[in-house]
Amino acid sequence: MGWQDKLTERERYLMSLDSTQISFRDLEHFARSLAASRALVEAKNEALRHCRNVHRLAADIIAPAYRGTNNALDEAVGEADAALARTEADISMDEETARIYKEGLIAMHDERHPDGGGLHGG
């Protein structure tokens, strides 16, 4: 599943438009999408930090004392490893989506306003 599959129908439509078809309202929608994506990434990063702390506690402190003696604990640590890897992959995908939104927004603005206009410091 690619990052495009995570986009809403409206977002896919906006990405299909060229600069002559994009209104200020469309640019505002892109800006809101970017802000929402960034907030989601920040929330997931905070959750990931928490997951890593819990995982570190389980994997580094508790599990070594029982490793090999308790199959259920070994399986639980393995599942925690897999869940952590999936969470990290999801966050990476969200960051990529946010980066693409931002680049698209700036490119559309630059095409419509070649003199700058202040969207990204110009």
How many DSSP H or I helices? 3
Instruction: Report the β-strand fraction as a percent range.
Output: under 5%
Helix content: over 70%
From N to C, what is the helix and strand string? HHH
Query: Kindly state the mean pLDDT as a whole number?
Result: 66
Shape: elongated
Major β-sheet profile: none
Query: What is the number of E strands?
Result: 0
**Mind telling me the C-alpha Rg?**
21 Å
Distance between the termini: 36 Å
Uncertain regions spanning at least 5 consecutive residues: 118-122
Structural class: mainly alpha
- Characterize the quaternary organization of these chains: single chain
Provide a compact summary of the structure.
By secondary structure, the chain is mostly helical.
What keyword list fits this structure?
3 helices, elongated, mainly alpha, 122 residues, disordered C terminus
What does this structure look like?
With about 120 residues, the chain is mainly alpha-helical. It has a domain at about 40-110. It is about 75% helix and about 0% strand. It has helices at about 10-15, 25-65, 70-110. Helix 2 packs antiparallel against helix 3 (about 70-110). It starts with 8 loop residues before the first helix and ends in a 10-residue tail after the last helix.
